[in-house]
Amino acid sequence: MATSKELRLENLRALVAEFKTAEAVAKQADTNAMYLSQILNGAKSSTGKARGVGDALARKLEAGCGKDEGWMDRPHGPAALMNLVPGAMPVRAVAPDDPSLTQIMKVKLTVQAGITGFQVEPEYYDGETQGVPTRWLLKEGLSRDTLLAITVKGESMEPALYDGDVIVVNTRDTSLADGSVYVVNYEGEAIVKRLQRDAGQWWLTSDNADQRKYHRKLCKGAECILIGKVIRKESTHI
Predict the structure, then answer these.
(1) Which one of 50, 61, 72, 121 has the minimum C-beta count within 10 Å?
(2) Residue range 197-219: average pLDDT?
(3) How far apart are CA 238 and CA 236, in angstroms?
C-alpha cells in the first residue's frame, strides 16, 4: 500500500493529468508552479529529502481544483481498486512480442462442400493476431501452429458467443464431444456451432433461444466436416 507521501504525489500527478499541466494546477490552487514541478520531478530539499506535498499545500490543491477536503489523502481510480480488492493486480499494456503472450493468426476461412481442407485469409480488421497467455498455452499442451483465431459473425451462438467476439480454434482437435463448440464446414460454409448427441445422431445446434430461426442441423457425412474445436474466446460482453 502506498505511503501518505507517495499517495499525495500520485494524486498530484492525477491533477496534472486532469488540468493538462503543472502550471494550470498551480494557477487553480494559487501556488508556485516551479515548486509543484520540483515535487513531480523528485527534487530534494536542503535536508537531502525529496520534496513532498505538505498538509497546507494538499488543502490548497483540493480547494483550488474543486476536490473535497481529504481528497489528496485517499486513493482514486485503479489505486483505490487495488486497495479494496485483496489480491487485485493492475492492468498492464504489453507489446506484441512480449513473451508472456503468444500471438495467434487471426483469419477468415474459405471452405468447399465435401472437402476436408480449408484455406485461410489474414483478417486485418482490428488487428491481424490475437494474443493468448503463453502460460495457458503450455499448460494445455497446445501448439500455436495448430491454432487459428476467428471473429464470430452473427447472433446464432448468443449468449455464449456474440457477433464480434474472437474465438481461438484448435484445428488438431476434431474429435466428437457432446456439448463442445466447433468451427464446421457445413455444406461449403464455415460456421460456429455446438455439437450435441441426440437419438443416436450428432447435431449442430445454436445457443440462441430463437430455435425457429436457428434450428438444429444434422451433422453427418461429407456435408458436415469439423474444422476444429473452439477452446478460448475474447469478448467484451459481460
Answers:
(1) 121
(2) 94
(3) 6
Backbone CA torsion sign across 167, 156, 127, 122: positive
Q: How far apart are CA 190 and CA 163, in angstroms?
A: 15
pLDDT of 179-200, one tens digit each? Answer: 999 999 999 999 999 999 999 9
Confirm if 22 and 37 have CB atoms less than 8 A apart. Answer: yes
**Ordered domains of the chain (ranges, CATH):** 4-84 (no CATH), 101-234 (2.10.109.10)
Q: Dihedral of the CA atoms 115, 116, 121, 127 (nearest 10)?
A: 140
* C-alpha cell recorded at residue 107: 483469419
Please state the pTM of the whole predicted model. 0.63
* Residue 230 CA: distances (Å) to CA of 77, 136, 160, 190: 35, 15, 12, 13
Select from 203, 231, 226 the least CA-distant residue to 111. Answer: 226
